[in-house]
Amino acid sequence: MTLQSGTDTQYWAEPSTIGTEQAAGRIRVFYCLLAALCAIGPILQLAQGLFADPDTQWHLKVGLDMLANRAFPVVDTYSYTFAGEPWIAKEWLGQIMMAAAYHVAGWNGIGILMAVAIGLTTFCPTWFISASIRPMIAFAIALIMVV
After folding, report:
1. Shortest CA distance to 125 belongs to which of 139, 108, 136?
2. Angstrom distance (rounded) from CA 43 to CA 98
3. First-residue to last-residue Cα distance in the chain
4. In sequence order, which residues have a C-beta less than 8 Å from that of residue 5 and are 6 or more positions away?
5. Cβ neighbours of 118 (radius 10 Å)
6. What does the alpha-carbon distance between residue 45 and residue 48 come to, in Å, rounded to a whole number?
7. How far apart are alpha carbons 2 and 18 in whole angstroms?
8. Is 132 left (phi over 0), alpha (psi -120 to 50) or beta?
9. Adjacent-strand bridge partners of 75
10. I need a labelling partner for 106 at 20 to 30 A (CA). Which of 21, 53, 116, 123 fits?
């Protein structure tokens, strides 16, 4: 179908093509969301182990300190063997995000934050891979990456 306006000619896609492209996009989104949900499921089952890990609690405490002081820590205050030694906060963004999630919803907020992070980590590669190959194959590759 061609639309002419003056000297310019614009080409429009056939209506049947538009429906096919939308259906393909929906299928692609479906498989990407399914891959993300398949990655999140086992993590939610193992959440108690995540919260029992001392590193998680340490990152939370450092994040809470950064929010309270509005500054990065420059010395290690929580380590027994290196107390007072110079320290660079390399994981500052994750620690602040954990502290903010904890302020909003407690440990459930941290669980939701971790689930969203893992879901996005699975969704994004699946989305980009599915642009080049069939979404079902991209889904299978994403599941292999997660495992």
Report:
1. 139
2. 16
3. 48
4. none
5. 18
6. 8
7. 15
8. alpha
9. 86
10. 123
Please tell me the predicted confidence (pLDDT) of residue 15. Answer: 52
Name residue, tokens 């590669």: 125
Q: Which of 132, 109, 139 shows the shortest CA–CA distance to 47?
A: 109
pTM confidence score: 0.71
Residues of the chain with pLDDT under 50: 1, 8-9, 11-13
DSSP codes of every residue in 4-65: EETTEEEE---HHHHHHHHHHHHHHHHHHHHHHHHHHHHHHHTHHHHHH-HHHHHHHHHHHH
Cα–Cα distance for residue pair 132/94, rounded to 1 Å:
32
Q: For residue 22, what pLDDT is reported?
A: 79
Encoding tokens for residue 116? 């969203």
